[in-house]
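Subject: Interface between my chains keeps coming out wrong

I've been trying for a while to get a sensible model of this assembly. When I model each chain on its own everything looks fine, but I need the whole thing in one frame so I can look at the contacts. Pasting all components below, labels as-is. Any help appreciated, I'm running out of ideas.
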Amino acid sequence: GAVVSQHPSRVICKSGTSVKIECRSLDFQATTMFWYRQFPKQSLMLMATSNEGSKATYEQGVEKDKFLINHASLTLSTLTVTSAHPEDSSFYICSARDTYEQFFGPGTRLTVL
Amino acid sequence: TQLLEQSPQFLSIQEGENLTVYCNSSSVFSSLQWYRQEPGEGPVLLVTVVTGGEVKKLKRLTFQFGDARKDSSLHITAAQPGDTGLYLCAGKLGTDKLIFGTGTRLQVFP
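Reply #2:
Try treating it as a single job with all components included. I did that and got this:
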C-alpha cells in the first residue's frame, strides 16, 4: 500500500516556540491531505483539510492562525503549531488521499513544556 | 458533538472469547471504515464497507454495515492477544471528510 511519512516522530519544545511537522506521501501524489489531533486515550479529531495550492479548510473550533497549514506540493503538507502551549501537547497524525483511498502517517508526538 | 459513537468504550476479555464492537450514528455515510491503532502509531485500515447491509470477513473479523448506512459492527471470533489495540470506525461524509468514532480499546489476556 501507499506510504505516508511524518517528520519528526517526536518533538519536545518550550512554551511559546513554534513547531513545524512535515507530512509526505512517498509513492503517490496526494491532492488532498488531512491533519488530525489525538489526545491521550481519545479518538482522532479532524483539524483541517488541505488541498494542494489552496488554503486549508479548518474544522470548527480549530484556530487557523495557530495551526498553519501549507500544502505546497502534491507530496508535502506542513503543519506549524505557532506559539505552542502545554495544552497543544498531543499526537498529530496526517493523512494523504489518492484517487480512491486515504492513507495515514505514523504520527508526531508533540510535548510542550 | 461526536458524530460516531462506539460501544463499548473499553473491553477486557480472555483469549478465545468472542466480542462485538458497535459504531452508531444518526448521519448517513457514503462508506465506513474500520481501523486498528497501536500506541504511538497511526491507524491501520482493516476494511471499507460501502453498501448498506454489506458483510465483509477478514479471517476472524466480521464487519457489517447497517442497511441505512448509519451504523456498523465489528465481530471478532476467538480473540487473541495480538488483537489488542484501539479499534476505530470512521465514516466518510460525501467524498471528502473521514470522521472517526469515539474508539474502543480492546485488551485480550492470554
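Reply #3:
Confirming on my end. Chain B has no helices and eleven strands.
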